[in-house]
Design a protein that fits this description.
This protein is mostly helical and 117 residues long. It has four helices and no strands. The N terminus is likely disordered.
Length: 117
């Protein structure tokens, strides 16, 4: 995707990126009805938390592993920001709604790390 292919987000003619239903969206909710931010919040406070535990704990664990791998201290906050950066690169290279939802989710986890919840 080149810079020319990126839609003008200020315009009213933003193309839809598919109409598939969210895998675990509440009944009657589709991607067209649920915003990216709403979906990210639903996932990090619901399904992902029940599958993986509290996000701030998981980001602390990721940070510990990265610290060992790179040989420098990494915080849970930094780990969440780096995961968001990965999703932004993916979105830039191949736009998929899922990358934007995940990016927003990692920013939400960064906030949870700061709040300790």
């Amino acid at each position: 995707m080149s810079a020319q292919d990126v839609p003008d987000i200020a315009g009213d003619d933003i193309p839809r990126i598919g109409t598939r239903r969210a895998v675990h969206a509440p009944l009657g909710t589709s991607h067209d009805e649920e915003t990216i931010l709403q979906e990210a919040q639903r996932l990090i406070y619901g399904e992902r938390q029940s599958e993986y535990g509290p996000g701030h704990v998981e980001m602390a664990q990721v940070a510990q592993m990265w610290s060992v791998i790179i040989g420098a201290p990494v915080s849970g906050y930094q780990a969440a920001l780096c995961m968001c950066a990965l999703k932004l690169v993916r979105a830039r290279n191949n736009h998929k709604r899922d990358s934007l939802v995940d990016g927003a989710g990692y920013l939400g986890l960064a906030q949870r790390v700061i709040e300790g919840r």
